[in-house]
Amino acid sequence: VANVLMMTVAAFMLWRTDWRLFASVVWLAPVLYGVNHYFRKRIGRQWQVVREWFTRVSTNLAENITGVRVVTAFNRQAINLDVFNDMQDRNTRNNIRAARLNGVYHPLLQLIGFTGKIVILAMGGYLIVSGRIGEDQGVGAVIASHLYWDWFMNPILNLGNFSNQLMMAMAGAERVFSLLDTQPETPDLPGARPLPPIQGHVQFENVTFGYFPDRPVLHDINFEARPGEVVALVGHTGSGKSSIISLIARFYQPQKGRIRVDGIDIRAVTAESLHRQTGLVLQVNYLFTGTVMDNIRYARRDASDADVIAAARAIGSHDAILSLQNGYQTEVGERGANMSLGQRQLICFTRAFLANPRIFMLDEATSAVDTETELLVQRSLSRLMEGRTTFIVAHRLSTILKADCILMIDAGRIIERGSHSELMKLNGKYAALYEQFVQQAA
Ligand SMILES: Nc1ncnc2c1ncn2[C@@H]1O[C@H](COP(=O)(O)OP(=O)(O)O)[C@@H](O)[C@H]1O
Ligand SMILES: [Mg+2]
Predict the structure, then answer these.
(1) Ligand nearest to the CA of 236
(2) Nearest C-alpha to atom 3 of ligand 1 is from which residue?
(3) What is the pLDDT of residues 305-342, one digit of tens each?
(4) Cα angle vertex 367, ends 361, 369, to 5°?
(5) Fold exhibited by the domain 202-441
(6) In the CATH scheme, what is the homologous superfamily, with its name and number, of domain 2-180?
(7) Which atom in ligand 1 lies closest to the alpha carbon of residue 237?
(8) Among 135, 179, 253, 332, which residue's CB has the most CB atoms within a 10 Å radius?
(9) Is the CB of 241 inside a 6 Å radius of any atom of ligand 1?
(10) Domain with CATH 1.20.1560.10 in the chain
């Protein structure tokens, strides 16, 4: 509005100064209007597309970074990279198209502004030379008109300047891309071989590990899980439960000792073959943008719709999924925001079930699932655990009670181990923690 006012005032002043000068440039106004109309609509639309795709790219990127564990655990790196690269290509092309439009529009505006100045000068010169305007006031009039024309054009030239926004968007993108260089997993050793089909026998042998080598968070960990056994990891926050899970998934490697799966040191195998046979459900129930169907299929792209539905039926999540707004075609928002915690967990369980790993790991948040779906979640979890070696950081008593072995972790050490009844008899730290649990549940 301020721009329009300024332009009107400038035009009026130009007209007042000398109507002939005004008339000499007034024909440029419709040209200007036409150019503006043509380009602004197109550029506006193109910027809309650029912004949309930029949002898509950054959402995708954000999901892959925050969900990197899930991406890695399900061997989705290559596919996701393809998807991302496609998006990024689109994004680049969109930006080029916008830049090209801008590259024509802006100089064109400048050309019009320049033309106006020349016309005023030429017309002014002619008026003065031909004596139609007195020389004494004529020069002043021409200079003033020149100025007013500048005033008239400036708001339009400024409006046309989108390139700053473009630079800003690019700067943001660059910062994000530097994140991509961070290594999300332990790379394969040279000569790493694929892990043959496993039973699910897991051994920790004198494992010492720290995120920083000089600050170990796990000290000399030894335990064994036979195929099909359920191991519950119990302990206070920060004791090292999640770190143990991360080591099994080989997101990190121990500084001392080794971890063996079916007798094979997991350092010697390819991450891809290990992740194909392990399944991980995380504290943050990670769902990606897309339909419920896509999310379940995440780990096994070749699975048909029928396979997905069969898995959901088998694990008991089918009805819960059907009760969603659009059933299997329900769109999951960023990080699955539009669903309840229990619903998201069910979908994650179904995803893990479809992947059918020999080793299943669950690292669960303390926060309780909604009571509505709690029973359903518990039942699907039992079905998911059936016949798999399971490591579980759980906060449900029912799950812990069912474990074949409970490892009580304290400050990075296993301080007690055994079944629930054994540990209760011991009457140590676990028994105390259990009392606390029961009291909280009551
Ligand atoms: N990515 C990380 N980088 C550095 N330190 C970490 C990281 N993750 C966890 N830790 C530290 O390691 C210790 C064990 O953490 P964690 O295994 O997450 O415990 P828990 O799962 O039992 O709460 C804590 O002291 C924690 O601060
Ligand atoms: Mg944890």
Answers:
(1) 1
(2) 211
(3) 999 999 999 999 999 999 998 999 998 876 555 788 88
(4) 80
(5) Rossmann fold (3.40.50)
(6) ABC transporter type 1, transmembrane domain (1.20.1560.10)
(7) 23
(8) 332
(9) yes
(10) 2-180
